[in-house]
Each structure stands twice: as C-alpha cells, then as structure tokens.
Amino acid sequence: MSTATLTHTAAFARLGRALADPTRAGVLLALRRHPAYPSDLADALGVSRQVMSNQLACLRGCGLVEAVPEGRRTHYRLSDAHLATALDELLRVTLTVEPDCCDGDGCTCA
C-alpha cells in the first residue's frame, strides 16, 4: 500500500472544502449521475443563478467539475468518472456522531 503524498492530501482537502458547503455538495451529488446546465442545478438546489455560478466556479477551481461548451450554452460534469464512484461510496458510509459535537452550525470537536 502506498503512502499519501502531498498531492493526495491537497486533493482530499479540495474535496473536503467542496463537500463542506451544502450547495457545492448538492452539485457534486447531482452531477454524479449526469451532466447538467447551471440553471437546472440552481432550480434543483433552490439557489439563485448567481450563487450557482459562484459555486461552479469554486468547483472548477478545485478541479472537481468541468465546463463543456455546447453552442451558446455550457453544461457541467464531474472532471473524473472516479469521483462519481467515490461519492457513491461515501453515501454508503454510516457515521456515528456525538449529538453535542457537530450540530450543523460547525463542529465543536476541536
């Protein structure tokens, strides 16, 4: 088994940052099944198109999604098919959370 490299650590940090925001997490979960247009993602997640644009820019910057031009429109997809599999596996994880630790307003474990 190989040891984690700085590249691996940076990739996990980017993914963690993406998953820490509910809108970005929703985008990644939506895109794991099929590509989508920003307006459709915004409608599905109940956010403005401007918010969606900002979140997609963040995810692009992290290397997690890519924009695919389609004539006058652009759709988005996960940048790597392995990411869909990884997200599916994460959805199968069962966590036991201390009730007083992570209440949705931030983790107080530290």
Question: How is the secondary structure organized here?
Answer:
Layout (H helix, E strand, L loop, with lengths): L5 H15 L1 H10 L6 H8 L3 H13 L3 E6 L2 E6 L2 H12 L18
Antiparallel strand pairs: 1-2
Helix pairs in contact: 3-4
Fold and architecture overview:
This protein is mostly helical and 110 residues long. It has one domain: Arc Repressor Mutant, subunit A, CATH 1.10.10.10. The protein is built from five helices and two strands. Strands 1-2 form a two-stranded antiparallel sheet. β1 and β2 form a beta hairpin. α3 packs across α4. The longest helix is centred in the N-terminal third of the chain and has 15 residues. The two termini are 30 Å apart.
Would you count the extended β strands for me? 2
Approximately what portion of the residues adopt beta-strand conformation?
A: 5-15%
Radius of gyration: 15 Å
* CATH architectural group: Orthogonal Bundle
Order of helices and strands: HHHHEEH
Per CATH, the class reads Mainly Alpha
- Mean pLDDT metric: 89
Structural class: mainly alpha
N/C terminus separation: 30 Å
**CATH H-tier superfamily:** Winged helix-like DNA-binding domain superfamily/Winged helix DNA-binding domain
Task: Output the CATH topology.
Answer: Arc Repressor Mutant, subunit A
Oligomer: single chain
Number of domains in the coordinates?
Answer: 1
**Major sheet details:** 2 strands, antiparallel
Helix content: 40-55%
Arrangement of strands in the largest sheet: 1-2
Poorly predicted runs:
none
